# Entry
Amino acid sequence: MNRKSFLILLAMLLVIGGAGLGLFWQDLSAWRDAGSTIGSKPMAKLATAEVAQVRLYDGKNESTLVLKDGRWTVKQRADYNASVQEIGDLLVKLPDLKVVQTEDVGASLLPRLSLVVPGKDVKEGAGTQLELSNQSGAPLGSLLLGKIVVKKEPSPLPIQQETPVGRYVLSAGSPTVLVTSDALKNASAKPEAWLEKQFFKADRIKSLANSGDGAAWKIARKEEFDPWKFADGAGELDPSKAVAAVNALNDLKFTDIATDIKPDNLDKPRTLVADTYDGLIYTIRFAHKPDSEDYYLTVTVTGEPPRERTPEKNEKPADKERLDKQFAESLKKLDDRVKFEKGLAGWVYLVPAKSLDPLLKARSDLVAAPRKK
# Structure
């Protein structure tokens, strides 16, 4: 080989080597950009302040959380209020999500980690696709969430305790399976998981009437701490059952929003009317949901709290300023609560039967048992 041929061959090797080195650094850069190194943060650049839509999809369920007119809503639940706390918790965690482990897993093993991209044709091993976008719909980031990584804790009981410590994920643009520092337990694709569960609380009730479906009764009391009695004066009321019925309206919880029925289309509903010392009237209608243990329920709130305080008997002038201040503070809180509760009208709620049980009783069930001699 002459000198000229050697130089040509050397030049070719340098060109090929340079190209290969360039591809290597390009691949390494892409790998690093995808957040695949231990200690890196795959979503460190997420602009959480710009997030206006969060979509989660697992092939069976889908939740789309949308920021509308300053409030978060659940699209699949007729734009009912979404939990700001749950959404905020997720958005705070995402930018700080750290990679604690990386795994080179083949495509055949992805179903075991629930890291298959969800779709209609996926029968098993589907993950939860998390997508974030801004007000105009432009994407801000995404992750494919897989199985939660748990740590088994020693326990004296036969059943070992498992503590979530991380999650398998696939970052967009990277084939490397990552194990993150947080399990993101609340990143569910079920719409009911994102609903704002705050509900009405009918308290300081002075009369409660039940009508419809063969269960008609009314209980009342004159003063707030007087014993409950049947409003018609006939029969002796069981005080514990009366208190249970009244307390149930102060602790009702719903599990979901029904989108398959309108508020005016309940089948053979019962109606509860609770008149309160605060000048508010709660009208609750509920009917059994077919093929379910739940009940459909609607609520409307009317009336307004009194705007002036009634002076106490033998009230001293020295106490007036203190009592007026307490009344104003309580009125502010009550006004805020009433505004929220009046906004609950227009939706149908799913409520477990057990929470309504004290209110489902017939009049005869509320009568006190005969006293033993």
Observations:
- The chain has two domains: 48-194, 205-366.
- The first strand starts at residue 53 and ends at 57.
